TrEMBL record:
It comes from the Bacteria. InterPro entries: Chorismate_II_sf, Chorismate_mutase_highGC-bac, CM_dom_sf, CM_II_prokaryot. Pfam families: CM_2 (PF01817). It comes from Pilimelia terevasa. GO terms for molecular function: chorismate mutase activity. This is Chorismate mutase domain-containing protein. Residues 4-85 form the Chorismate mutase domain. GO terms for biological process: chorismate metabolic process.
Amino acid sequence: MSVPATDTRTTSLRARIDEIDDAILDLWRERAAISREVGRARLADGGTRLVLSREREILARFSAALGEDGAQLALLLLRAGRGPL
Ligand SMILES: O=C(O)C(=O)C[C@]1(C(=O)O)C=C[C@@H](O)C=C1
């Protein structure tokens, strides 16, 4: 029996979704590691743990691109790097 064309298409689209998710996870981990490094360097220089002006910029950028979902995503990204407030 032949496989319906929609099943084949779904399988291939899901494979692409998995690739995209892997890329997102890699980028998530890379961003968090870089954020931690920036934070450690700032603390070692006697600076603050947070830079709220920078966090506001990031929140605004994600909100402008994705609305409320973007704001939530930005908050999760920031927390992954600098830890909870
Ligand atoms: O850009 C910085 O100075 C960072 O420390 C990185 C970062 C971020 O994850 O984007 C993390 C904490 C700061 O409050 C602001 C931004």
